[in-house]
């Protein structure tokens, strides 16, 4: 069943007044064949769409704040500034178990030289079994994002 629009509606076929949606072609049977033979859109008439510029006012409730994307990213990064993770938090953030993290991120020499605080990094490796791991949250998150392909591509 075809939906009818007013003749002045920019989304209606000017010949048969049938609604024209995202495809921008009239597909009604009354218009098929209206184009010349050999036309790339044989049987379909191209509908010229009109552009409408409007000014819109939106009231933002008092409990919400509108900020730029740059400010949002800054706030997000400040959220981790001065925060330290333990191994459980790193597991939670990455969705990987500690054994996988140790084998693929923390112990391989190419990463350990960057991560270990002994080499100027930001991960406190335990000195003996039973001691906790400590990670600078902001720097670890950045490291994981920047080295994603190296971590997963051995």
Layout of secondary structure:
Blueprint: E1 25-26, E2 45-46, H1 69-80, E3 84-85, H2 87-94, H3 98-106, H4 109-115, E4 123-124, E5 134-136, H5 137-146, H6 148-152
Antiparallel strand pairs: 1-2, 3-5, 4-5
Per DSSP E runs of 2 or more residues, the count of β-strands stands at 5
Largest sheet: 3 strands, antiparallel
The structure class reads: mainly alpha
Indicate the radius of gyration in whole angstroms. Answer: 30 Å
Overall number of domains? 2
Mean pLDDT, nearest integer?
81
**Number of H/I helices:** 6
- Cα(first) to Cα(last) distance is 58 Å
Shape: elongated
Strand percent estimate: 5-15%
Helicity range? 25-40%
Residue windows where pLDDT falls under 50 for at least 5 positions: 5-9, 33-39
Strand order of the largest sheet: 3-5-4
Order of SSEs, N→C? EEHEHHHEEHH
Commentary on this structure:
Mean pLDDT is 81; it is low at 5-9 and 33-39. The protein is mainly alpha-helical and 154 residues long. The chain is 33% helix and 7% strand. The protein folds into two domains: 1-49, no CATH class; 69-152, no CATH class. It has six helices and five strands, in the order E-E-H-E-H-H-H-E-E-H-H. It has a three-stranded antiparallel sheet.
Please summarize what this structure is.
This protein has 154 residues and is mainly α. The protein has 6 helices and 5 strands; from the N terminus they run ββαβαααββαα.
